[in-house]
Amino acid sequence: MVSYVSALLYGVGGIVVAGMALLVAFQEKLVYVPVLPGLTKSYPITPARLRLLYEDVWLRSADGVRLHAWFIKLIPECRGPTVLFFQENAGSILIFISPALYIAHRLEMVRIMIQRLQCNVFMLSYRGYGASDGYPSQHGIAKDAQAALDHLSQRTDIDTSRIVVFGRSLGGAVGALLTKNNPDKLLSLSKGGLSCNAGVRVSHVINKRGSNGEHRKVINISLNTYKLKYLRMWFANCYQFIIVAALILENTFTSILDMAGVLLPFLKWFIGGTGSKGPKILNFLVRSPWSTIDIVGQINQPILFLSGLQDEMVPPSHMQMLYAKVASHNRECIFVEFPNGMHMDTWLAGGDHYWRTTQQFIENHVPEIKEHESCHDDKGDSFSS
Fold it and tell me: Is 85 exposed, middle or buried (0-12, 13-18, 19+ CB in 10 A)?
């Protein structure tokens, strides 16, 4: 009897060890799904099919990986906000698989976004996705996101002070990390220095030379979101901002570590995030933890949380925990629930309420700067170079 029990325990233990070994070896294939079954990486259509004005953009990440993106504009000279959109983990920037298992086009969502928000949209293909080269990983995708933001910051046909990062599911983790890594930056086109008396602490100055040959100074500044809103207005006619003005998170998880226990319950005893009660003895083996819960608390920009309560992939409690993490110190956070929203179709199930909520958030926190607004505060103090 003892030998039988021992053999059974060894057998179960062997299966568990083998299963974990497979999870470790193939974890990237579980987290990242660039190509859906039965499909290819190529794009069957382009934004032109939906009569959207766009351009193909080719980028190089910091490690040299060639990336593809679409820059879709409302009108040729649109100076409205620009949404930097980061997609989910499955499918290309063009298509995803919906909860009903039919193929739908992300472009349709983008078409509505452009119309309702009066914005431009930049859609990046992560490395290994779509027409981009390379293989996906957290370290690599973080570099890809930075390359996309750097590209937008160098464009002269958009208002670089009105860049809004929008991430859904995995894209929310990507967007949160990018926003945290890019604190407020102010670009001066003048050759002089910067002096101000608005209580802004200048941390360091980086000299650069612009693509047009002009000498530029990028000043990293540390300030709260209230000051930032008015600083943008004061400096409207003197300086150009390069900034992530706001962040939108939709159906995003707290971490891949926590999601491992959601998708494969037995793993919660070995892998978990900061809020997990398990021993977490295998956390060190996870190469793409995407710990959003540890990132959002370091973000000072306004954040809009869009949560679908029927999400069948990411428990809605994850979004609630993300909001609770940041709301204690960031007063410009908004949490909105959509009772019928599932993981991929909250924008559709939410209907007019979804788009009105997003539009109002952008109007309130990423306002258009009027040309007549000067570089003086209410007391007449000026900011000069």
Answer: buried
Spatial contact of 261 and 238, defined as CB atoms under 8 Å apart: no
Name the residue among 165, 164, 80, 155 with its Cα closest to residue 368: 80
What does the mean pLDDT of the chain come to? 77
Query: Are 385 and 194 spatial neighbours (Cβ–Cβ below 8 Å)?
Result: yes
Quick one: which of 239, 184, 278 has its CA closest to 385? 239
Rounded Cα distance, 348 and 354, in Å: 8
pLDDT the model gives residue 276 = 66
Q: How far apart are CA 147 and CA 37, in angstroms?
A: 29
* pLDDT at position 219 over 80: no
- CB of 220 within 8 A of CB of 228? no
**Looking at residues 252-258, what average pLDDT do you find?**
91
Tokens of 299: 């973000």
Helix axes 106-117, 351-365, angle to 10 degrees: 50
Look up residue 12 and give its amino acid. V
Question: What confidence category does residue 17 fall into, taking pLDDT thresholds of 50, 70 and 90?
Answer: low
User: What's the pTM value of the predicted model, to 2 decimals?
Assistant: 0.78
Sorted by sequence, the CB contacts under 8 Å of residue 309 that are 6+ apart come out as 316, 337, 338, 339, 340, 341
96, 90 in Cβ contact below 8 A?
yes
Contact status, residue 120 vs residue 114, Cβ threshold 8 Å: yes
Cα gap 144→199, rounded to integer Å:
34
Please write the tens of the pLDDT for every residue from 101-114.
Answer: 333 468 889 999 99
Q: What is the mean pLDDT of residues 352-356?
A: 97
- As a whole-number percent, the residues of the chain with pLDDT over 90 amount to 47
Which domains, from first to last, does the chain contain? 47-188+240-255+290-366 (3.40.50.1820)
